[in-house]
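Q: I'm building a small set of examples for a reading group on sequence design. Run inverse folding on the following structure and report the sequence directly after it, with nothing in between.
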């Protein structure tokens, strides 16, 4: 069975043209198909609601570009979202409440100098054996921390092994989240007592030095925080609106999550 939205077919040619835009998705073909289906759902809703504006847009764009129809469709969808998806601006009180509850997000300047020993997970090495060896080396490092650099040169699968495992100075956002949480929780000179697991493998981690940053005052970040919270509300509202449209549409050939009851007022 082919893919269609209210009897409008999503063609193979359309999917092929859309596919390059989703090369980074876990399943590019699925992402491309879903994007086309959602676009068609929105476009049909826009045409139903904005018939008069569609004619005006088509007249305006007709002489301006070869792909005038695509520009008309994009403009219709943008106008529909503008009319149907509301994004209330948060109050100062709401912004300040978020600030207080998430105060750690507003620190700047925290810096650590860290080293690690990486046991990289590879298809050819049994994970249990790798973990056992990493645990053995961790115990050696905890018992004789002065040998950390030598252990890194001997065992680490990272290029930093050449410099004793040193990663230099790191700020927040420079490493994967699981590794960042570990290094910023340690004191200067401390080795993490447990292996740190990341997408790269198993790490033995030591912090050499750290410099504390400061918390930005609310007054300094109020405007940016309001913009961020407004965007978060808009994204949630748009997702809810799409669920409604998907739930109302007759979609064949692919399953998308729909909504059975109105979620947006």
């Amino acid at each position: 069975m082919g893919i269609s939205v209210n009897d409008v077919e999503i063609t193979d040619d359309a999917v092929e043209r859309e596919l390059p835009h989703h090369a980074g998705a876990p399943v590019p073909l699925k992402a491309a198909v879903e994007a086309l289906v959602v676009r068609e759902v929105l476009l049909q809703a826009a045409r139903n609601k904005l018939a008069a504006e569609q004619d005006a847009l088509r007249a305006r764009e007709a002489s301006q570009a070869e792909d005038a129809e695509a520009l008309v469709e994009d403009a219709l969808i943008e106008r529909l979202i503008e009319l149907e998806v509301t994004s209330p601006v948060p109050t100062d009180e709401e912004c300040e409440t978020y600030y207080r509850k998430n105060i750690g997000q507003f620190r700047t300047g925290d810096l650590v100098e860290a080293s690690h020993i990486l046991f990289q997970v590879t298809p050819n090495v049994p994970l249990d054996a790798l973990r056992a060896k990493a645990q053995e080396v961790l115990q050696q490092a905890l018992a004789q921390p002065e040998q950390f650099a030598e252990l890194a040169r001997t065992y680490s699968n990272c290029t930093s092994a050449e410099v004793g495992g040193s990663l230099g100075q790191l700020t927040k956002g420079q490493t994967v989240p699981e590794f960042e949480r570990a290094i910023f929780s340690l004191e200067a000179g401390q080795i993490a007592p447990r292996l740190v697991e990341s997408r790269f493998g198993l790490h033995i981690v030591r912090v050499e030095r750290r410099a504390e940053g400061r918390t930005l005052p609310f007054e300094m970040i109020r405007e940016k925080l309001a913009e961020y919270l407004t965007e978060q509300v808009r994204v949630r509202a748009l997702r809810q609106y799409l669920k409604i449209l998907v739930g109302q549409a007759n979609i064949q050939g692919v399953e998308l999550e729909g909504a059975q009851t109105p979620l947006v007022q």
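Residues 218-248 form the longest helix (31 residues).
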